[in-house]
Design brief:
This protein has helices spanning 13-22, 40-47, 66-69, 87-92, 94-115, 148-167, 189-199, 218-229, 249-260, 284-290, 298-311, 313-316; strands at residues 4-8, 27-32, 56-60, 77-80, 119-125, 170-176, 179-180, 202-206, 212-213, 216-217, 236-241, 247-248, 265-269. It is an alpha/beta fold.
């Protein structure tokens, strides 16, 4: 059955990839404030192919403003992706991150309560696990965030639990693990590395290259999000959406070099406060509850990103 889905942050990287898939079956309204964290041109490019679809609409607005949310009518599902992103910038401006990520989530939950919207899907983050040697991480791990960004995501999960219990809103928090692919934000490592290596510029490498991440191709993440739209088995869940594989920074750089056919110039820098040494998802819960099965390997995913990067050079190279 066609549903009306409100996607916050739908002009962004994960959001626009999700909207593309949702429009195959549903009506979608995006709310996005075109935050200047990166260029408006890339976000407009992300939305370009949707305008001819009669089931797509855009609200240029702020999730902290109830009057902006009120423009979305007859919503069945909220998928909340909008947030101030990035661990390091959150250390520089923690109050803004609290305002947008926690205050904005609270406002959306109030909107859901008032409009009696019973399905709320929230983009959380693997950063909530902090530094934890007990890998791969499952959803019941002890959580010790080490950045303001991570703490705001954990706060969002707990707000969802409150509203689920008090107001009968089904709340599903999805912990994303280092998502990459076409349309990726320019501040993220894979985009930044491709751009610099191709240009012959040094790439910043924090630490000795032994840190590792569970890189998840965006199409796999989108499949996991979509599976939550019709989920009805329980009222509150926290679920990892990762790739169940870990790749060191050295291995990632080598894979990017092989994909674009150029060697990297390394600018070695100290490890950064707030960065965790490793992320690694246990995805057995997602497999059991959502039929989640990430099947894109790193080289396939990097190749898809590289195709997008070359096809959209004027925007991607900004």
């Amino acid at each position: 059955m066609m549903k009306h889905i409100l996607v916050t942050g739908g002009a962004g990287f994960i959001g626009s990839n999700l909207v593309r898939e949702l429009l195959k079956e549903h009506k979608v309204t995006v709310i996005d404030n075109f935050d200047d964290f990166y260029s408006r041109e890339q976000k407009e490019l992300n939305l370009k192919s949707f305008w001819r679809n009669e089931n797509f609409s855009l609200i240029e607005g702020d999730i902290r403003r109830m009057q902006d949310l009120q423009e979305a009518r007859n919503v069945d599902v909220i998928i909340h992706l909008a947030a101030k992103a990035g661990v390091r910038p959150s250390i520089e401006n923690p109050i803004l991150y609290q305002d947008v990520n926690v205050g904005g989530t609270q406002n959306l939950l109030e909107f859901a309560k008032k409009r009696e919207i019973k399905q709320f899907i929230f983009a959380s983050s693997s950063s909530v696990y902090g530094i934890n040697e007990n890998v791969p991480w499952h959803e019941e791990e002890k959580l010790l965030p080490i950045s303001p960004y991570a703490s705001t995501k954990l706060s969002g999960e707990m707000l969802g639990h409150v509203y689920s219990k008090l107001y009968n809103i089904r709340f599903i928090a999805l912990r994303f693990f280092t998502v990459y692919g076409p349309g990726q934000r320019p501040d993220l490592a894979i985009h930044k590395f491709f751009k610099s290596i191709i240009a012959g510029s040094p790439i910043p490498v924090f630490g000795d290259g032994s840190t590792s991440r569970d890189y998840t191709f965006v199409n796999d993440t989108v499949k996991g999000i979509k599976a939550c739209v019709d989920y009805e088995e329980s009222d509150f869940e926290i679920i990892n959406l990762g790739n169940h594989k870990t790749v060191t920074l050295r291995e990632l750089i080598e894979a990017i070099e092989n994909t674009c056919g150029k060697k990297a110039i390394i600018n070695r820098l100290p490890e950064q406060p707030g960065d965790v040494p490793r992320t690694f998802a246990n995805v057995s819960k997602a497999a059991a509850m959502l039929g989640y099965n990430p099947d894109t390997n790193l080289y396939e995913g990097l190749s898809e990103f590289y195709k997008w990067f070359k096809a959209n050079q004027l925007v991607a190279h900004q």
